[in-house]
Amino acid sequence: MKxxxxxxxxxxxxxxxxxxxxxGSLPRALGRLDVDARVIIPxxxxxxxxxxxxxxxxxxxxxxxxxxxxxxxxVCEYDETTFYFLQSSPYFGxxxxxxxxWQWDMERFVYLNQALMAALAHLGEHQGWFPDVLHVNDWHxxxxxxxxxxxxSGAGWATLATVLSIHNIAYQGNHAGGFLYQAGxxxxxxxxxxxxxxxxxxxxIGIGYSDMISTVSPRYAEEIKYPYxxxxxxxxxGLRGDDLRxxxxxxxTEFWDPQTDPYIFENFDSENFDxxxxxxxxxxxxxxxxxxxxxxPLIGVVSRLAAQKGFDMALPALxxxxxxxxxxxxVLGTGESDLEYAFWQLDQDFPDKVSAFLNYDGALAQQIYAxxxxxxxxxxFEPCGMGQMMAMRYGALPLVRRTGGLADTVExxxxxxxxxxxxxxxxxxxxxxxxGTLNWALDVYQQRPAAWKRMQQRAMSLDFSxxxxxxxxxxxxxxxRIKIGE
Length: 486
Known about the structure:
The chain is α/β, with parallel strands linked by helices. It folds into 2 domains: 2-250 and 467-483, Glycogen Phosphorylase B (Rossmann fold, 3-Layer(aba) Sandwich); 273-461, 3-Layer(aba) Sandwich (Rossmann fold), CATH 3.40.50.2000. The protein contains 19 helices and 15 strands. The strands form 2 sheets. Strands 3-4-5-2-1-6-7-8-9 form a 9-stranded mixed beta sheet, with helices on both faces. A 6-stranded parallel beta sheet has the order 12-11-10-13-14-15, with helices on both faces. Strand 4 and strand 5 (81-87) form a beta hairpin. Helix 1 crosses helix 19 (467-483), helix 4 (144-151) packs across helix 7 (202-209) and helix 11 (273-287) packs across helix 14. The longest helix has 26 residues, at 102-127. The mean pLDDT is 96.
């Protein structure tokens, strides 16, 4: 089976969030299941062709309603996967970041979908490779299922199945009507879209026209059927419920491996972590300019600083906990200015307890996973979440809210001898809930060290690899092909 994943991001070439990790690592796991999975993303200007040995494959003139543009397709082999890159000035090829302002992003991603259709035709005609399944991801490429259906019985297109993955339904590409009209995209007359006034919502169009749909955890697949998580797309999701699958994201366990990670101070595994992991904590305390005291519990945060992540609840809770007991906090992240300022202020108010790094640093992130005792991730909603899985793999116990993928991956501590559990879970979206759970976790760390270590070993032994999830995606692709009669 031949599958092409179309996305705005793919690690390591262009990464903003978890979307890039999925698109960058899933194809390799699919390859182990005899699926020829390839990836196509925009050829952003910041991607280093020399570093990744990216070569020009072919170019063509793309004629569309607004005129004609030169499109160039580049290719490289990375991590046993073929990656294609689409450049087309002025839309893609000169920029220094993945996303820009709303108006420009809407115009250029609508163009991307149209240009990708032309690139697919050229891949088939001139390179001899045409997919059986087109796997699109989030709103940036979710116009493609409609464009494929619009081709009707054209050569190759009638037997091309489409799958849409929703990584975060909060980002929808809505109000796209003017951009679609300008680009010459025909009307979307699917009755469900018309009824719910979603004909101008790019993600809604993808949900309506794709053959099968997935999202990134089983719990999130249920949550988005309701307005509190699915927003205005919830009714449409409900209508497509039989075609929706919740498939938990996996980790690239060869990269996220404390036994071999070159960025942490001391390598370790689930058998020797008790002796070796504390050296990573000492190193992290030293780097963060905090007192080097192994007995003080160290809380870690590695996150995009956004409202979704629950820091409006966590900040007042942290302030109370840090003001009343011995604990340390290391924060790494960037995002909304008010949250950045609040963490900076916490750093200023508790200089011997808090160190806030308001930037992106991949190596430091891995050192935090390997060195902190407790990993804080109190999200209001979390489609899947990767941080909690990375933390557990490195022996840090997550403190999370019971939502989405956090509920699917973190089993709550049994408050006894840790016969079950690998973290601490709360339900209510309140600062008091975060505060109470923090105090509970810190008490366990200080008073029940044997239970804590038992949970650490269990967490490090959990299988978060792509193998199981890749099998679920292969089944999803097969179901999509059956649905179109292939």
